[in-house]
Design goal:
78% of the residues lie in helices and 0% in strands. It is built from five helices and no strands.
């Protein structure tokens, strides 16, 4: 992503946070917007992992095996979040940036 676009998105996020402090939006309305956006746009994180894995692998690992590995990684990540939330948040920011 271009640096200018990232800066603009960051400034927009900060502006929205400041506006929310001045004119708070009820939690019910925020939840409604969240559900509407998830229904309209979906959650893209990880949606194409299986297809990407298949394209990257020459031997085409079985889908079932990949799903078990994926579920195992998600479970481990969830447990780390549960027991070490601050450390997990730090690593999440490193990964997401």
């Amino acid at each position: 992503m271009q640096i200018r676009l990232r800066v603009k998105l960051l400034l927009l996020g900060i502006l929205l946070i400041l506006v929310n402090f001045m004119w708070p939006v009820p939690t019910v309305v925020q939840t409604g917007f969240l559900l509407l956006s998830v229904l309209l746009f979906g959650i893209p994180h990880g949606a194409l992992d299986i297809d990407l894995h298949r394209k990257m692998q020459q031997d085409h690992v079985a889908k079932k095996g990949l799903l078990w590995i994926y579920i195992g990684c998600c479970t481990l990540y969830g447990l780390v979040w549960f027991f070490l939330p601050l450390t997990s948040f730090f690593f999440f920011l490193l990964i997401a940036a």
